[in-house]
């Protein structure tokens, strides 16, 4: 059975509707026709994620999310998704949206990467944003 977990590194995040959100994330994989074994979201600080970005990806900049697929190609997805709570707060303020909406967007963004969506080229970014918005609307409707 697919498992979606939420953990804390050096930041604690109080997520409302945790069970509903876990089920919804698992449903994204079903909708995108991607088998899911386990996805663990780890909430952390900017500094924690910056170290990971430097150590594992050789990038020297802050980011809101890093996704690590741990499974072999063709196997059900096993992954860890690290999210900087600090960066999400700043992004929400800069984008004039709520922290909750931005956190959901980033959570869905990590899942979409694992379903094969990319965000390097302009066309990929556009498609990624469309899928994020699609799932944000679906999640809000499911209340």
TrEMBL record:
Family: Belongs to the endoribonuclease YbeY family.
Protein name: Endoribonuclease YbeY
Details of cofactor binding: Binds 1 zinc ion.
EC number: 3.1.-.-
Pfam family, one: YbeY
Species the sequence originates in: Sediminibacterium roseum
Cofactor: Zn(2+)
Residues where Zn(2+) binds: 109, 113, 119
Group of enzyme by EC: hydrolase
Localization: Cytoplasm
Function: Single strand-specific metallo-endoribonuclease involved in late-stage 70S ribosome quality control and in maturation of the 3' terminus of the 16S rRNA.
Keyword field: Cytoplasm, Endonuclease, Hydrolase, Metal-binding, Nuclease, Ribosome biogenesis, rRNA processing, Zinc
């Amino acid at each position: 059975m697919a498992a979606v977990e939420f953990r804390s590194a050096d930041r604690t995040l109080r997520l409302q509707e945790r069970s509903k959100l876990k089920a919804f994330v698992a449903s994204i994989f079903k909708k995108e026709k991607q088998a899911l074994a386990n996805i663990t979201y780890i909430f952390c600080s900017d500094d924690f994620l910056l170290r990971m970005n430097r150590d594992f990806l050789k990038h020297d900049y802050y980011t809101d999310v890093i996704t690590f697929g741990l499974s072999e190609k063709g196997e059900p997805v096993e992954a860890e998704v690290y999210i900087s709570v600090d960066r999400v707060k700043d992004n929400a303020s800069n984008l004039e949206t709520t922290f909750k909406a931005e956190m959901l967007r980033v959570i869905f963004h990590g899942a979409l990467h694992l379903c094969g969506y990319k965000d390097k080229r302009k066309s990929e970014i556009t498609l990624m944003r469309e899928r994020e918005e699609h799932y944000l609307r679906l999640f809000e409707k499911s209340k």
